Structures are given as C-alpha cells and as structure tokens.
Amino acid sequence: MEKKNTGIHSIYVGNLNYNTDEDQLLGLFKSFGYIKNIKIMREGKANKHKGIAFVDMVNLADAEKAIKAIDGKLNYGRTLKVSLATTQNFKPEIHPESLTSAKNPKKLRDNIAKK
Length: 115
Prior knowledge:
This protein is of the alpha+beta class and 115 residues long. It has helices at residues 22-29, 60-70, 105-114, and strands at 9-14, 35-43, 48-57, 74-75, 78-79, 81-84. It has a single domain, classed as RRM (RNA recognition motif) domain (Alpha-Beta Plaits), CATH 3.30.70. 25% of the residues lie in helices and 29% in strands. Strands 2-3-1-6 form a 4-stranded antiparallel β-sheet. The protein has a two-stranded antiparallel ribbon with strand order 4-5.
C-alpha cells in the first residue's frame, strides 16, 4: 500500500511524562514542519493524563523525519515511543458513568445494540 503525502498524518507519542503539555510537544515537533493539531489523551472526570498524545502534521515526509528523530529519545526522564498512528495506538475507552444513558439501563442496552 502506497503512502500518500496529502492530508493529515497523525503521529502517536507514547510514554510521555504526565506533566507534559501541548506547548512542550509543540516545541519538540515544530522544527520538523507544520503542525495542524496536538491532542494529549486524558481520561475520566479528573481529566487524568494518560501519557499518550497525537501530533497531526500535514506533510508525510515531515512526520517521518520527526518520528525518526524523536522515537527513543529521553524526554523528561522517559523514553518516548513515537510512530505513525494506527488504530492499534488508539483504542477509545467508553466509561458507562460518562454516558447520559447510564442511569437508564434499558436506554443503555438500546444504545449499545445500535452499534
């Protein structure tokens, strides 16, 4: 399968220090090319940092350069795991308490059955 150099190319960044913020990631990646978006994954009502982020770059060659340069580097005491994002990198978690239908078991079952 041929990789295209158009669109958005999401980079998975794992094993982040839990204090890492978007500005720090921007500083780490901006020298490689245009960054469209940075998303740090958080969970639950406490908005807890999961140590994972996605950096979206417009140019595939820039994304690949960033991955090659940053993967395996030490950052705030942690060795970063950096790669092109895949569905394996991101598995959304659904927490029943965050669903409005969670208080109504029948509605919850109906919503799950629709999927």
